[in-house]
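G., before I forget:
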Amino acid sequence: MLHGPGDLRVEHVDEPEGEVLVTIEVATACATDLKSLRHGHMMLDPYPTRFGHETVGVRDDTNERVLVGDSVACGTCARCATGRGQLCEAMTWVVGGFAERIAAPAAALHRVPDGLDPAGAAMAEPLAAAVHAVARSGAQPGVDAAVLGGGTMGLMLARLLLLEGCEVTLVDRHPERLAQAQALGARAVPQLGRHELVLEAVGRPEAWRAAIGAALPGATVVLVGGCPTGCEVTLPAAPLHYAELDVRGAFHHSPAEVDRALELLASGAVDWRALAGERIGLQQLAEALVRPPTGEARKLVVDPRL
Ligand SMILES: [Zn+2]
Ligand SMILES: [Zn+2]
């Protein structure tokens, strides 16, 4: 339970209440969870609150293994009516993966394909956001695409762009992450060149500026990394206007994109093992989340049974 900024406690709480109870096998962690720990998050309830949103477990009622999707769009608001449920004005967030049990609306649940490991299936949540970002990018075969940032999201984006047939360059300062990108099949460099398509996966103002600076005239730039809440970013006006840059945000995903991500992980088209890191129990979570990232980009795998 999060009791306030930085105040994470492992404690016995009441059984969660909701439509379907799921006994959790694993929940993977991401930068959103670190943000949630430090500052709270718009998808969380008031303190004290559960968190963790990349969750896989077994349904109590049917014994089926499911990914617990982290949101259910209302289906009726103006945004939902235009087919953009990820922008739903009345979203129900489903969080609480860092626990032994979670309660979820049935509409949030996705069946995990047979043979896919729970830790791999949990990564369908962030991978679905990457699937959505690549769809927003309009990537076409043969396009010269760059990914700025070699964290797990950047690596997922690079892999998906390769599957679309793009020429992919990943940019990061850490040699270990460049080696991971190369292993996926991307070109990996420490410094940005200029490209027809640029996907930003860092979430800092200087990275947003760098992404604009790396765009060739007429390019598309997709901002995937979320900057801190309340952040303002100054961008150069000239390329936005004279170079007709197409700058787009990408946020979240649809249920169909979650299912697509599960298929990509189950088929091996995206190798989740290359992105899986240390397996920890709930007791280690607070310490592991705030550990400074070094070396390879890998996701924490939280197993409440440890
Ligand atoms: Zn996440
Ligand atoms: Zn809606």
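The chain has a mean pLDDT of 96. Residues 30, 32, 53-54, 125-126 surround zinc ion (ligand 1) (CB under 6 Å).

More on Monday.
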